[in-house]
């Protein structure tokens, strides 16, 4: 899926997602990544179900408005305890498929919102 959006040159932008690849600012990623306000970081997790509050330490310091978790081709709910821990810190968190997370990320970024995303590439069904 090609994602086209009118945008400024600042920040990180998801340009395309395809099976096994996420393109961010012209660079392709085939492994899970975390997109912060200023950089793309690798994720050392096989899937979103493995996430714990420790994986959000940097986000807790920087305090984005919203955290999106793109769980790949299939939606996977994250543990309710993790959602509650982040909400207690004033950070909204939503899990969804990676395609939906990428679209939501782009809409929120185009509105100037502080949004971070944890994304797992789409896998073939």
TrEMBL record:
Specify the superkingdom: Bacteria
- InterPro entries assigned: MTH938-like_sf, NDUFAF3/AAMDC
Q: Gene3D superfamilies of this UniProt entry?
A: MTH938-like
* Stated name of the protein: Rod shape-determining protein RodA
């Amino acid at each position: 899926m090609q994602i086209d959006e009118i945008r400024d040159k600042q920040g990180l932008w998801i340009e395309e997602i395809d099976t096994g690849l996420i393109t961010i600012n012209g660079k392709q990623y085939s492994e899970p990544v975390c997109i912060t306000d200023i950089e793309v970081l690798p994720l050392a997790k096989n899937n979103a179900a493995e996430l714990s509050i420790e994986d959000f330490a940097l986000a807790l310091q920087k305090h984005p408005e919203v955290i999106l978790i793109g769980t790949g081709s299939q939606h996977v709910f994250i543990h309710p305890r993790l959602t509650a821990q982040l909400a207690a810190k004033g950070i909204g968190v939503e899990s969804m498929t990676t395609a939906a997370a990428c679209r939501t990320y782009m809409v929120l970024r185009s509105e100037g919102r502080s949004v971070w995303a944890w994304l797992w590439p789409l896998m073939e069904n």
